[in-house]
Amino acid sequence: MSDDADGITLESDPQGQQYVLRDGDKLIGQLAYAPYGPDGTVRVLYHTEVDKEYGGRGLAARLAAVALDDAVAQGLTIVPWCPYIRAYVGKHPQYGPHVAPVTAEYRSVVPEEYWEA
Fold it and tell me: Residue 55 sits in which domain range?
């Protein structure tokens, strides 16, 4: 999907319902999501993580931007369940028209370990 000069690639993995960051063959980050609703037009972004050794390089922001831009391009409504995504959306108002508020109704598609939104 994207390749940066630093050799880190960002790929969409629709079957795994995630976007992944790789440094060569090494998985170094992910942004996980789940579809919601009968037609899947809502995407719940529930977890963003980058390995600590890669922190401070803007990689989580890269994941967020690609995932959000992809959802917008597909005409999806975004639910920023993940605290990082919520903060990112708050700083980037262009996503506002595409965002739905986080409510308990979406809990059914979020793995239990991420329920504390």
Answer: 32-114
Q: Looking at per-residue confidence, does 5 or 26 come out higher?
A: 26
Indicate if the pLDDT at residue 18 is higher than 90: yes
Q: Residue 3: is its pLDDT beyond 70? A: no
Instruction: List 20's β-bridge partners, or say none.
Output: 11, 30
Looking at residue 37, its amino acid is G
Phi (first) and psi of residue 64, to 5 degrees? -60, -50
For residue 28, what is the enclosing H or E element?
strand 26-36
Residue 53 lies in a domain: yes
Residue 45 lies in a domain: yes
Residue 78 belongs to a domain with what CATH number? 3.40.630.30
